[in-house]
Specification:
Helix 7 links the parallel strand 7 and strand 8. Helices cover about 30% and strands about 10% of the residues. It folds into 2 domains: about 130 residues, Rhodanese-like domain (Oxidized Rhodanese, domain 1), CATH 3.40.250.10; about 110 residues, Rhodanese-like domain (Oxidized Rhodanese, domain 1, 3-Layer(aba) Sandwich), CATH 3.40.250. InterPro entries: Rhodanese-like_dom, Rhodanese-like_dom_sf, TST/MPST-like. This is Sulfurtransferase.
Length: about 270
């Protein structure tokens, strides 16, 4: 098991120890801002707390895309409120194999904020249930706040101008249909950044929703010394970064604004097809 992943069985064991890890439920549904909190109330891993994609892991949508990063001070305040600190491991999960918000939370905590031990629950909530894990219902109570002041590393992500000028390999985590411009269910324009290669985040998982082996992932990713990962709005792109970590490969930088920002400037080129 990679040191960025945790199995449901290992999480169950950790929850019996002291201090327990901080467990963050990152479930979300695009287009339904209340879905994550509602799903958490209906049933969640014991001791977990809800971490909201749109309110905690992003700032308001606009010219910088649909899920721009929050201000560092705001995200630091969120982490303190949830009791996150470097001395306690953090486990994040969703119900889509990490593809939607858990990987984004991992990237923001481990790569941007620099927390030393953040794991993604491999297989997410379905894996927890399959392993016999129980769910609890109810409202969220206040956590014991921490005093952590993260040192954010802005070298882990890039702006649109750098994407435009960079010779780095651009990996697009969206579906092949969206990449080719055949179908665009979310953004106003279809296509991809010229020169990019398509690597759908779903390809990182096997048929049971767990990550493929490090060996399989290493074979699948193209060889490149400099990689920029993007998607529609900088969320599923983090899954490709996480997959690089599972594979033991150098980590790509994240283009946070991604396609939803790229298309806002008509001067930026658009490609279609393969």
């Amino acid at each position: 098991m990679s040191d960025v992943l945790i199995s449901a069985e290992q999480l169950h064991h950790w929850l019996q120890e002291q201090p327990t890890p901080v467990v963050l439920d990152c479930r979300a549904r695009l287009g339904d801002l209340e879905a994550g909190a509602r799903l958490w109330r209906e049933g969640h891993v014991p001791a977990s707390r809800h971490l909201d994609l749109d309110r905690d892991l992003a700032s308001s949508p606009g010219v910088r895309g649909r899920h721009p990063l929050p201000e560092p001070g705001d995200f630091a305040a969120t982490l303190r409120r949830l009791g996150v600190e470097p001395g306690r491991p953090v486990v994040v999960y969703d119900d889509l194999g990490g593809q939607l918000a858990a990987a984004r939370a991992w990237w923001m905590l481990a790569q941007w904020a620099g927390h030393p031990d953040v794991r993604v629950l491999d297989g997410g909530l379905p894996a927890w249930r399959e392993a016999g894990g129980t769910l609890v219902e109810g409202e969220q109570t206040e956590a014991t706040a921490s005093d952590w002041a993260p040192a954010f590393d802005d070298d882990t992500w890039v702006e649109a101008d750098e994407v435009f000028s960079s010779r780095a390999l651009k990996l697009d985590a969206r579906s092949r249909e969206r990449f080719r411009g055949e179908n665009e269910p979310v953004d106003a324009l279809a296509g991809h950044i010229p020169g990019a290669r398509c690597r759908p985040s779903a390809d990182n998982l096997n048929e049971n929703g767990r990550f493929k082996s490090p060996e399989a992932l290493r074979e699948a990713f193209p060889e490149a010394s400099d990689v920029i990962s993007y998607c529609g709005s900088g969320v599923t792109a983090c899954h490709n970064i996480l997959a690089h970590a599972v594979a033991g490969l150098p980590l790509p930088r994240l283009y946070v604004g991604s396609w939803s920002e790229w298309i806002r400037d008509p001067a930026r080129p658009i490609a279609t097809g393969d």
